[in-house]
Amino acid sequence: MPARDSHAVDPAILNEAADWLMRLSEGSVNDTERLEWERWRNSSPAHRQAWARAELLLSKLQGLPPALAMPALDRPSNPERRAAMGKLATLLALAPLAWGSWKLNDWQNWTADYRAPVGERRDLTLTDGTRVTLNTDTAIDVYFDQRQRLLLLRRGEILIQTAPDPSPVARPFRVETHEGRMQALGTRFSVREERGHTRLAVLEGAVSIHLKGIGEKVVEAGQSSGFTAFAIDGLKPVDKSVLAWTQGMLMSDNMRLADFIGELARYRNGVLRCDPAIADLRISGAFPVSDTQRTLNMLARTYPIRVTSRLGDYWVMLTPA
Q: Using one digit for the tens of pLDDT, what is the confidence trace for 284-301?
């Protein structure tokens, strides 16, 4: 027989935990109801396990210690309540897998040589004089030895202004991502690591892309390219908005709302989604990434969009106004 899943909890119990999560978060629970909740929680190990997942969910999603005094979940009206409970119960069922993913991401960030948290930027000057700016949710390692100057981009986006090597032997300056390696040829450039794809934009000088077993391509100033582990993209002009993030802005020029929201989501914790009905709405303008709530308010004032928040602003949905 297959081994029993030690993380499995009866879906009915998870639904009960989701219901209690919503009731307690309203902040209007009386003493009788609180005692009822305690009896429910302590009635069986399965109930305690389900509630532990509820606490873990709020702790991880909202960055708060588990407690009964939870932020408001914006309890939906009665017709929506069953659907909302179902979504919460699904999240509770996925808690063990999600926790493993969170632990991996946290470990990658905390063990990196340098990092910038979500919603923040960081400026660095390396030992050779090279200047590096880290965008939101970025982590890098730096390896300088007698043969090379290597920067490993674990995740995120960086802007690099290389400096002449002060050592007697001119060591190449290289940047490596999960997909491949780049070598700077006296230059200023940006690199963004995405899921299975690296973006490169060269502002000054040139950068050579090297893929093992594939070949290389030189990208000159004013050009951009990208690559996977198996192929290098063609050359394109550098988008004028590529460095807007260094000024704390997100630039859009006739951008699909769905794509805009995907970019904005990088600068805030939580989940940010838009209804498919407005996914193709075109957005133009300059928006602050240091205050994503302000940007969402700007969208709601300018376009036929309604912004709805749940789970204490962790879960935000854009729908037609």
A: 999 999 999 999 999 999
The pair of structure tokens assigned to 236 is 């394109």
Residues in a beta bridge with 317: 273, 308
Query: What's the pTM value of the predicted model, to 2 decimals?
Result: 0.69
Written as six digits, the tokens of 279 are 């996914």
Cα–Cα distances (Å) from 301 to 179, 253, 268, 304, in that order, read 41, 18, 20, 8
Query: Does an H or E element contain 58, and which?
Result: helix 45-62
Q: How far apart, in whole angstroms, are the C-alpha atoms of residue 276 and residue 280?
A: 8
Q: Which of 71, 77, 74, 89 is nearest to 19 (CA)?
A: 89
Residue 177 inside a domain? The answer is yes
Nearest CA-CA partner of 175 in 158, 196, 163 = 158
Same domain, 232 and 138: yes
Q: How many domains does the chain have?
A: 3
User: Residue 22: which domain range?
Assistant: 11-101
- Say which amino acid occupies 308: T
In a domain, 3, yes or no: no
- 37 domain residue, yes or no: yes
Q: Which helix (H) or strand (E) holds 36?
A: helix 31-41
pLDDT tens, residue by residue, 222-260:
999 999 999 999 999 999 889 999 999 999 999 999 999
Task: For residue 158, give the nearest of 138, 180, 184, 173 by alpha carbon.
Answer: 138
Same domain? For 136 and 162 the reply is yes
